[in-house]
Amino acid sequence: MTLGQFIRKQFVDVIQWTEPENGILSYRFPMRDMEIQIGAQLTVRESQAALFVDEGRIADVFAPGRHRLDTDNLPLLTNLMHWDKFFESPFKSDVYFVSTRLQLNQRWGTSNPITVRDLDFGIVRLRAFGTYSYRITDPVRFHTAVSGTREIFLATDLEGQLRSLVVARMTDVFASSGIAFVDMASNQIELGERIGESLGPDFSELGLALESLVVTSLSLPEILQKRLDERIGMNIVGDLGQYTRFRVGQSIPLAAANQGGGGAAAGAGLGAGMLMAQEMMQFSKPSGAATAPPAGETKFCSACGVAGALNARFCSECGVAHKSA
């Protein structure tokens, strides 16, 4: 290797970076034993920013574009290095590229159930999962607070801290909202927006902006989920009296359809409907002393022996039609 080749090898006249893969947030351009030529070309691509750092002090920051490096384009570095206007010598500086592109589909979730107070169930332990996206909006703050002097800084290096922030703010939102779990679970878009709003300052301190946060799953422990399912079932049934009339109304056409098979079958079907109605109405009444036998004259069912009103056409216990006297 000649002396001229050796000298040219030590000087840098083109500085640029092409991201080889997703998830790289910061990259330090290799400058070991190398110096930058005055007049060198710096290329900063869209969704990038470039930082010049002198002995740990951030000097000049470059936005996307092609830049010629001289004293006019490096005012802060010129001041730090005490260069004069006609400075032409090669210089040393650390150059960091920061990716400002959107970091999509970052996953978050509760590794363990979190404890919150719910309006319906009291103190409960729940789990939540979702995704979020963010971008670097303040490269200087991000470099100072997060990436520092590392040669390469990945999104995976940051995900643990961001996930903890999301879970902490979600817990705060639950605690301060006063909204029941059922309502939260049915309005996951609004829940995500609330959590996102509370996270804004936390991300800003790191030089980041939270672009979106989505809650994809919100669940209770199995035992509480069963209680919730039971409550939903009761809400579907609604008013027991109305529900009973509906079911009895359904049984009458079925009994009429069975008349072709004999009056006994039709009577049994209708009697069963009436029996079900009585049982449902009894269920809706407060429990107390056993129901007294019907007042007045009575007769006994030939099938089950239970006493009933003399003029009743069907047994209130088994639904069998009474034989005519």
Walk me through what this model shows.
The protein is α+β, with helices and mostly antiparallel strands. It folds into three domains: 12-99, no CATH class; 103-226, Tetrahydropterin Synthase, Chain A (2-Layer Sandwich); 238-283 and 296-325, no CATH class. The protein has nine helices and 14 strands. The chain has helices at 3-10, 75-81, 139-147, 156-177, 181-185, 188-204, 222-237, 240-257, 263-284; strands at residues 11-15, 24-28, 35-44, 48-54, 57-62, 65-68, 94-99, 103-109, 114-118, 122-136, 152-154, 208-219, 298-300, 307-309. The strands form four sheets. Strands 5-4-7-2-11 form a five-stranded antiparallel beta sheet. Strands 8, 9, 10 and 12 form a four-stranded antiparallel beta sheet that branches. Strands 1-3-6 form a three-stranded mixed beta sheet. Helix 4 (156-177) packs across helix 6 (188-204) and helix 8 (240-257) runs antiparallel to helix 9 (263-284). It starts with a helix and ends in a 16-residue tail after the last strand. The relative contact order is 0.09.
